[in-house]
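Input.
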Amino acid sequence: MRDSDVIALITHNIQKSDDSIVQAEALFNIEQYFGSVNRAYYAIFYAALGILLTKGLGSSKHSGVLSYFDREFVKTNEVDKKWSKVFHDAFELRSMGDYAKLIGVTKLQAETLIKDAKGFVLWAKQWLKERDWLAE
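Output.
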């Protein structure tokens, strides 16, 4: 039997992922591409945190979440490496948008990341449901 607190936390993270997608799309629609990229990245980040929780893992650092995701799920072939690429690309674009000076995020980059984030979250939900880690 699964710990109900862990399932609740995973479900909460997935809800945050869904909310972040809505926010990313809203920001995109008003041409706020930096913000839309940030929220799309967080949609992926929260979904990845939910997956890490299935093994009792977590990290306060974004790079830690990426590392755990790759080490515990991708390198063990439990998760397709395409999802690692999506996560890494999102991390890089979000970092570039948030921290780099004089570098802009284009409409196409934002649009692509939102699409990728939707795919990642949809995949994560299915992955978690198949393993009975997500509340209905």
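The longest helix spans residues 4-29.
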